[in-house]
Amino acid sequence: MPFDTERERQDPAQQQALKNLVGRVMDRQQRQVIGQVQRERRLRHEGLNHALEREVTRWGDRLQAVVLHQSLPAAGRREITLLERCRGLDSEALAEEIPAFRLQLKGHSPMEGVLRALAETLPKLSHAALEQAHAELVAQWEQSLEQRYLAEQLALLDEQRAELLADLYRRLDGTEDLSALIPVSHPSEVGRLWDMADVPLSRRQMKGLTQLADFLGKQPEIKRLADQIGKMAKASNRGPLKRVKEKAIVSEQRFSTLPEEVAGVQQGKDLGRLLAVATSLLSSEELELLFFKQLIDSQLLIYEMKGKTPEKGHLKPVFRHRHADVEDNGGPFILCIDTSASMAGQPERCAKALALSLMREAVKADRDCRVMIFSTAVKSFDLLGSHGLSQARDFLGYRFHGGTDIGQCIEHACEALNLVPFANADVVVVSDFIAPRLKGEALSSLEAAQQRGNRFHAVALSREGNPALLDQMNHLWPLETSIWGRVKAQKR
Prior knowledge:
Blueprint: H1 6-9, H2 12-40, H3 46-68, H4 74-88, H5 91-105, H6 111-121, H7 127-149, H8 151-181, H9 187-196, H10 203-217, H11 220-236, E1 241-255, E2 261-268, H12 276-279, H13 285-296, E3 300-306, E4 310-323, E5 333-338, H14 346-365, E6 369-374, E7 378-382, H15 388-396, H16 406-417, E8 426-431, H17 440-451, E9 456-460, H18 467-471, E10 475-478, H19 483-491
Parallel strand pairs: 5-6, 5-8, 8-9, 9-10
Antiparallel strand pairs: 1-4, 2-3, 6-7
Helix pairs in contact: 2-3, 2-4, 3-8, 3-9, 4-7, 5-6, 6-7, 8-9, 10-14, 11-14, 16-17
């Protein structure tokens, strides 16, 4: 039996007939999958039904495209076209067309004998019986075609269906785990959790996340803080960035030259700012000459001092990007969390609880949420992406240790702000802020992002934070994590 030629493949009638047949096969497969899942799992939320149907439809569309590109015999394509013609006939016209159908099927299909037997009985049938015989013929013919020409494709569907069911059950488990962390009410929110639920959690992992959710439930300050940050992002109504330059006049500011605060360490010969490590050279006769040599060469380690009070400078023309005048739900969140050793304990629990609370805000407002943890290096987690549950599991299971490098994290966050999905993001930095103020590339990136309209929120978990560093952020949100601070908060 010759296989189809390219000309026959491009025949519109044959292509449409094959598409209709495969479409009915896929519809039946999809209904079977959805029915099996709904029988075996009680879906408590309508949003889960929507997500299930959407996932199965995507699966069906992918496989339908694969099946349609399979090579079929030319006789098979012609017979599928005849079936579609038969399906479209009314019951009275069927008797007239049967001889033509038999002639084209003779020697190629067992349906020729079925049509011959039907032709002999048609004159004896009532109108209702004729309609029933027509329906039975179409069903029998379609089943015969599937068995003869689509056997390999149906076997492929069975294999793929088993894989799909395993994936659906995994996502259902993951969605249930996430719903314990992120309570939802609207169907669209359930669909968001479905998209995030790539893996089920172990009992141990789920216990840890449940304990964090319980901890957050006892921290009204953290929930209030997340709500305020979310409302502030929404209230801006900045819309997407327009990459259009416009002229503006801004007031340039410069800091006074008076040495008012410590900004870092530098080399010099000012003995009034000398570090203790430099004076240790005088404790040994062998190193005393090295001390005086460094003094002459201005290479002693001294404190770098800068002014803190700004002085108004002159006006100058600049160019900046402006935002479109459209209303939106606010941009994504980029959450930068300090994971240095000084954050271990209660600050760590509060930081993770804030991340969970912002995840809830982001799901409700259909925003994205990226977490960047930093100590001496930066690691990113996309909590609301397609692998959100595993990302949240990895982040919330991370233990805080190491040093502090806020500047490096700010640079990474500003790089993300240059990406279209995060162009309108609000950056939330969670730290004790016991670190030097930003300078160099980090400060330049921060100021450029602020000029574009991005806000940087400082969530300070300690009263010992560097005021100069905190002043570089747009908003300061103090959050007490000390025992005394928590006691005072409870009294209020």
